Amino acid sequence: MIRAGETPAGIFYLVKGLVRQYAVSPKGETLMMHVFRPGSFFPMLWALTGSANTYQYEAVNAAEVYRAPKGDVLNFLLRHPEELWCFTKRLVGGVSGLLTRFEYIMFDGAYRKTVLLLLYFARRFATVEDGVAVLSVPLAHREIAAWIGTTRETASVQMETLKKRGLIKTRGRQLIIPSITALEKEGTS
Fold first, then answer.
1. How is residue 166 annotated by DSSP?
2. Could you give the CA distance from residue 161 to residue 159 in angstroms, rounded to a whole number?
3. How do residues 41-70 score in pLDDT, each as one tens digit?
4. Which CATH class is domain 110-188?
5. Where along the chain do its domains lie?
6. What's the sign of the alpha-carbon dihedral 94, 19, 65, 43?
7. Of 119, 141, 164, 168, whose CB has the highest number of CB atoms within 10 Å?
8. Cα 114 to Cα 158: distance, rounded to the nearest angstrom
């Protein structure tokens, strides 16, 4: 949708689907930054600060977006305090999530990072029934590695360990967490 280094064509408002934001290092390594859900505006860092866009934005699944000129969106938010308030709450929630991710990337090992990432995705993108979570977002091992700052091989080993412990299952490309409570306990031990 938007390439790093390009000036965005405007501000996007996500109506349906998911959009991921990520960075690519000069060596070609990918680091996932955020996944936008419906109701999100992006790229707001560019819109609010005027800084160059250094991130890639890509639809995860079928997405429906509206696009408007940056000035129109900023004026809309200024004229509609209730929308600005909703935007601000979402922004602060996103910053909180980034701080949490930063903390576990800096302090935890690959296994715990994987557990905490799966819990993050379960809370944000899963359908939960009777404590069983089914992720609506495909999460390949290379993407897990990009989220937790490790190699695909290391992420694969962690996922295999979680499968052997019965904390996750797969059905095709779908990831199932049989017990969120058990995975939460695993994340705190």
1. T
2. 5
3. 999 989 999 899 999 999 988 899 999 999
4. mainly alpha
5. 11-104, 110-188
6. positive
7. 168
8. 7
